[in-house]
Amino acid sequence: MLLIHQRLAELYAISSKRPLTPEETSEQQHCLQANAVYCWEMGRLNIEGQLAAQTGDTVWQEEIRAQLLEVQSSGKAAKRRK
Length: 82
Hints:
Layout: H1 3-17, H2 22-55, H3 58-74
Helix pairs in contact: 1-2, 2-3
């Protein structure tokens, strides 16, 4: 779980008790945008991992596995090699 997920949960809990302040609403939108990027990146890497497995490309699989771990821990993957 990334810190943005924890903060989203906190903001959700706050919003169930009272309306969010403009600053909290802005922070919530920022967290939602970061979460969307995270989800798209994880989805892309999972699909690429499946392709690598289906084609038997173990080098590509290892690169993708490393990127998945990086995204899971930091929310971002390093630039891909071309």
